[in-house]
Specification:
302 residues; 35% helix; 21% strand; 9 helices; binds adenosine monophosphate
Length: 302
């Protein structure tokens, strides 16, 4: 039976410097990267879809074509007069820094005109992130939570990656409030320990697991860079899995997104929690060994 994974968020134009002094254009964003990776490792047993909004200009149409050609089903209402967000990578002695133009992007209106998350039923999954929440104003955030709640009552699993980005929020109390609220109603929470330690003061991954589970989250899977991934669900004791050692880390951009894509593809396909974490770690290890958000791992041919 074909299951669906839908992610919701913002995909942006990426302008990355090339060695000859020019810029290469691509498309990326946490929730799109995740579904792109899920597509590449899941095979045909999984339908993957990305819900956002685009403008009515040429680059918006290019983005939609790019998604289709990657095997991701775009659900992209058009917002007249708007365009998609853009970020530019600068390199200074090998250090990357990012500049963003996204404050008025079409994706900020992604809930407008949507009555129900389309094409989802029992056994399907939806993933949002803290970035998805951060780009919406309060009434659209409320709307998104209602859409997720409705989907949940139809048997759709809700997953949430806090992906904490303080620069996108007005203040940190609001940020923490919404992140806890989204996590509390999620079946699966996929935090990165670094962020949780910085913004919630957790001393250990176990503390992160406890905080989200006490709030009401179902399964919690804590990523921790090269450290063990620790996870808990139901009454089972905390399970920890060591990622493979990567001797030549080239670029950790999108490591968490790749982990999420590999994990979700495996989990929705019926793998155990342990094996799903292993799948996420294996994919992330390959992604950090090459440059860029979308690393061309081969497609699963099944
Ligand atoms: P993070 O969001 O930084 O915690 O990383 C997400 C996932 O990427 C981790 O759970 C690991 O599976 C993988 N990862 C990140 N950094 C490294 C590293 N230096 N060595 C091996 N795996 C890594």
């Amino acid at each position: 039976m074909t299951r669906t994974l839908m992610t919701i968020g913002e995909c942006m134009v990426e302008m990355a410097p090339t060695p000859d002094g020019h810029f290469a254009m691509s498309f990326a964003g946490d929730m799109f990267n995740t579904v792109w990776y899920a597509r590449r490792c899941a095979g045909n047993g999984l339908r993957v879809a990305f819900l956002s909004a685009i403008g009515d200009d040429a680059v918006s149409a290019d983005m939609e074509r790019f998604m289709r050609s990657a095997g991701v089903e775009p659900i992209l209402p058009v917002v007249p007069g708007k365009s998609v967000g853009l970020y530019l990578i600068s390199l200074n002695n090998g250090e990357r820094s990012f500049s963003y133009w996204r404050s008025d992007s079409a994706a900020r209106r992604l809930t407008d005109g949507i009555d129900q998350l389309p094409g989802l039923g029992a056994g399907d999954w939806v993933l949002i992130s803290g970035i998805t929440l951060a780009i919406l104003n309060t009434s659209r955030r409320d709307r998104l939570m209602t859409l997720l709640h409705d989907a949940h009552t139809r048997g759709v699993g809700i997953a949430f990656d806090p992906n904490i980005r303080p620069r996108l929020w007005d203040n940190s109390d609001e940020m923490r409030h919404w992140i806890m609220q989204a996590a509390a109603s999620a079946d699966l929470v996929l935090p990165s320990f670094d962020d949780e330690a910085t913004h919630f003061g957790d001393h250990t991954p176990d503390a992160t697991i406890a905080r989200y589970r006490e709030a009401g989250a179902g399964c919690v899977v804590v990523k921790n860079g090269p450290g063990q991934v620790c996870a808990a669900e139901g009454d089972a004791p905390v399970l920890c899995v060591q990622p493979p050692v990567v001797s030549d880390v080239v670029d950790t951009t999108a490591a968490g997104d790749a982990f999420n894509g590999g994990f979700l593809a495996a989990r929705i396909g019926g793998a155990s929690l342990h094996d799903s974490i292993g799948a996420g770690c294996a994919l992330a290890a390959r992604v950090i060994g090459a440059r860029g958000a979308l690393v061309a791992v081969e497609l699963n041919p099944t």
